[in-house]
What we know:
Blueprint: H1 2-21, H2 35-40, H3 47-71, H4 75-91, H5 98-108, E1 113-119, E2 126-131, H6 136-151
Antiparallel strand pairs: 1-2
Helix pairs in contact: 1-3, 3-4, 5-6
Amino acid sequence: HSRNCRHTRREQCEAGVKIIQKYRPEVKSLRDIPLELLQEHKNEFDPVIYKRCEYVIKENMRLLSACNDLNNNDLVSFGQRISQSHIGLRDDYEVSCKELDILVDLADQEQSILGSRMMGGGFGGCTINLVKEEAIEEVGQKISKEYKARTGLDLTMYTGKIQNGTTLIEDN
Length: 172
C-alpha cells in the first residue's frame, strides 16, 4: 500500500512540473519552481496536485532555512522547522498516520523537545525528535506511557547522538 502511495505522490508532483513547464520549459523538477510561480498558476492545478507540489517546494525552503539555523546554532528555530515539516507531511503530502501524529502531538507538548516529525516514506514508521539531553529518559518514559494509553501499542525508543557530518579530509 505505502509503495503505491509513494508512487502516486511522485506522479502528482511530476504532473505539477508539467503544468509549470508550459510557461517555463527550463524547469526540470519542483526544486526549480519558486513558490510564487506555483501560486501564480494555482488555478490550473487540480487541488490535490497543487497541495503536493506546494508541500515539496515549502519543504525545500524549510531545508535551506534549517541549514542556516544549524549554521547559526539556533536549535529552537531548527526544531520549529522540524515540527513544521511534520505538519506539511500530515496535512499537505498526506503520508502520516494516526500513530505518528499522536507521537508528534505528545512531543509538541514537551518543553524539552524542540521539534518532532515522522521519518521515512510515510504511512507508518517512526518519528525523530530533537530533545534536550538532560530530559531524554524522563520525556521518553512519559511519552511511552501516554502513547500506550492512547494506542494500546508499546513504544520503542532509540537514542542517538549528533556527530559531525561528512567532512573533507585534505591529503597532504
